[in-house]
Amino acid sequence: MTAITTNEPEALNFECETGNYHTFCPISCVAWLYQKIEDSFFLVIGTKTCGYFLQNAMGVMIFAEPRYAMAELEEGDISAQLNDFDELKRLCLQIKRDRNPSVIVWIGTCTTEIIKMDLEGLAPKLEAEIGIPIVTARANGLDYAFTQGEDTVLAAMAAKCPDKAPVVESQKQERNAISQLLNFGKKKEEVAADESEYVNHTPLVLFGSLPDPVVTQLTLELKKQGIKVSGWLPSKRYTELPVLEEGYYVSGMNPFLSRTASTLMRRRKCKLIGAPFPIGPDGTRAWIEKICSVMGIEPKGLDEREAQIWAGLEDYLQIIRGKSVFFMGDNLLEISLARFLIRCGMTCPEIGIPYMDKRYQAAELALLEKTCHEMGVPTPRIVEKPDNYNQLQRIYEQNIDLVITGMAHANPLEARGINTKWSVEFTFAQIHGFGNARDILELVTRPLRRNNSLKDLGWGNLVKNEAKV
Fold first, then answer.
1. For labeling, which of 58, 173, 210, 347 is most exposed (least CB within 10 Å)?
2. Among 172, 297, 308, 309, which Cα is nearest to 224's?
3. How far apart are CA 204 and CA 125, in angstroms?
4. What are all long-range contacts of 179-187, with beta carbons under 8 Å and residues at least 24 apart?
5. Is the bond preceding residue 234 a cis peptide, omega within 30 degrees?
6. Predicted TM-score of the model (pTM)
7. Helices (DSSP H) in 344-436: which residue ranges?
8. Mean per-residue pLDDT for 142-150?
9. Residue 4 pLDDT class (50, 70, 90 cuts)
């Protein structure tokens, strides 16, 4: 098909193929959530297969005495010969005795879904008996991507957030937790002066599990604009969940949190700020500008801040500028990463994605389209539920320089001389905010720098295998 050159901006092209969702089980969200929520305990309820998966996915953490366990269903459970309530009560009492968490999170799996185990009905009765809150989340393989396990857990936790701020010591600690961290070492007069810098605005709660350093960075960026973050979901401790009243503003940190966003809007009557996600200097700036516009604040200093970050990335930009990147689809971060890499000077013919929520990612899609127009490159085709066989043919035809893909496809592609990067690495890396753009490019350029090093050592370029699979 021959492209027709016009002066009109090219619109995004959405397609849907007949492939599988190409992602692994969302119970893997336990790997990062139990570390984020320090007073929690995660109980995964499933079969031995789920246990094997958790052992492989999180085996490296076994010596850290992690706060998660596996409740393996036996034949008696599946055939309804055992009492679910008694068995879960026994396990939760053991967890309370050994670990005494502030909350127990039940992670339902495919098996609990199939045998219709009433976890939501059992939880209120059991938490009344043992005296520990129980959050039920069905993070099973029926979801589109493994990252949506976090979405399910946060949506369940949103229902547990208090709707009023009681005047008790724990809530005072919640309000002041971040400010104490930011004001460490300052005098009372200096702290009072800092508090006066905030603009009087409707409370803002941010949702998404981010590492503590990133939470501090983004909180500081908003503070520079006079915006105070009232809380985070999830918080560092379950006892410090943010207050959510009707009319509060909320903003998501990741593209895979659409279920949480819907819960906050429909059940808690919060107002969602539809902003691009703060990934890369361009996305972070757009995120701050959108929040400022909603709050009626004129943003300041963002031009200099963004220019400073881009100047510090030049050594990486020289490596990828003019090269092409192809997303096979895995963790639902594809749109944001593609937008940032296009701004860095790359081209992106195709973005594969397991599932596309156009409403929740509307601002991100608009920024992607705008970025392509400003950089003078064609807009990528966005393929939902892509077919891997068809993708491989397109990778060969377009002579792609780098493919960002799931772990299952990386080695076969490398064997055919195609540069790859695991998409799961972006899930666990610190990629949000101005200061972490360098970490993204460190991951993206690593395979390209490796091949350049091999070339310098006299190994020559990797030759692509022309065989079609």
1. 173
2. 297
3. 33
4. 181/216, 182/216, 182/219, 182/220, 182/223
5. yes
6. 0.87
7. 362-375, 388-398, 407-415, 424-428
8. 88
9. very low
Query: What six digits make up the tokens of 312?
Result: 């510090």
Q: How far is it, in rounded angstroms, from Cα 409 to Cα 422?
A: 9
Q: CB–CB of 46/138 below 8 Å?
A: no
Contacting residues for 252 by C-beta, under 8 A, at least 6 apart? 206, 207, 208, 260, 261, 272, 277, 360
Q: How many CA atoms lie within 13 A of 32 on its CB side?
A: 23
DSSP assignment letter at 436: G
Is residue 166 over pLDDT 80?
no
Q: Is 102 helix (H, G, I), strand (E, B) or coil?
A: coil
- Average of pLDDT values for 284-290? 97
Residue 40, beta-bridge partner list: 103
Taking only the tens place, the pLDDT of each residue in 385-440 is 999 999 999 999 999 999 999 888 999 999 998 999 999 999 989 999 999 999 99
Structure token pair of residue 351: 């973005």
